[in-house]
Design brief:
two-stranded antiparallel sheet, 9 strands, about 190 residues, globular, electron transport, binds flavin mononucleotide, Rossmann fold
Length: about 190
């Protein structure tokens, strides 16, 4: 009996965390060079949640959660769709339509390079936002653009960013604090 208690989780085990207020939530990300995974780690640690690459996630795992925190890098500069260059490009168009996310809280985040890609800073975060919103999710976590030097971004609505934008290329020293205060904001918005 004791051995069982320490046995590894069986395959297909649902990774899920519950916050102090009983909200079930998870952090889901993709990455090419590790930056978005780093930021996902800051968020997961601050919120005491599990994090997982979206490529490894089962559909029913998503459906059971109250709040999804989803993050992407931007690699396809200037693209209208499939901007991330990661698994989200497939997941958003082939998996999301089959999942019921209506009424779930969704907060989006991502990494970009505001200096080298100043006209397209973190555009893929705007795509995450648009598709989850169109699917009926309750979008939370918009942030101020103060402290950034980009010229344009498809992740902006009404003068704000639609979620948390981090720049590990130029402002890596700000990411952890930005993640911490964003998690506090998500709590105040009732999403955690
Ligand atoms: C070829 C290439 C294209 C990129 N395009 C963009 C872009 O359009 N917008 C942006 O903000 N960052 C762009 N970036 C920067 C990456 O998004 C940034 O380095 C990010 O932190 C990478 O995240 P990852 O390590 O999680 O993949 C690009 C980088 C490269 C090398």
């Amino acid at each position: 009996a004791h051995a069982f208690a320490f046995a590894p989780s069986p395959p297909g085990f649902v990774v899920r965390s519950s916050t102090a207020l009983g909200v079930s939530a998870g952090v889901f990300y993709t990455t090419q060079t590790g930056n978005t995974e780093t930021v996902a780690g800051y968020i997961a640690e601050a919120a005491d949640l599990e994090m997982e690459d979206i490529a490894d996630v089962e559909d029913d795992e998503i459906e059971e959660l109250d709040t999804l925190i989803v993050g992407a890098p931007t690699w396809h500069t200037g693209a209208e769709t499939e901007r991330s260059g990661t698994e989200w490009d497939t997941w958003l168009y082939e998996t999301l339509p089959d999942i019921d996310v209506k009424g779930k809280n969704v907060a989006v985040f991502g990494c970009g390079d505001q200096m080298s890609y100043s006209d397209n800073f973190a555009d893929a975060v705007g795509e995450l936002y648009d598709l989850f919103e169109a699917a009926g999710a309750n979008m939370v976590g918009a942030t101020s653009t103060d402290g950034y030097e980009h010229s344009d971004s498809k992740a902006m609505r009404d003068g704000k960013f639609v979620g948390l934008l981090c720049d590990e290329d130029n402002q890596y020293d700000l990411s952890e604090e930005r993640a911490k205060s964003w998690v506090e904001q998500l709590k105040s918005e009732g999403a955690l």
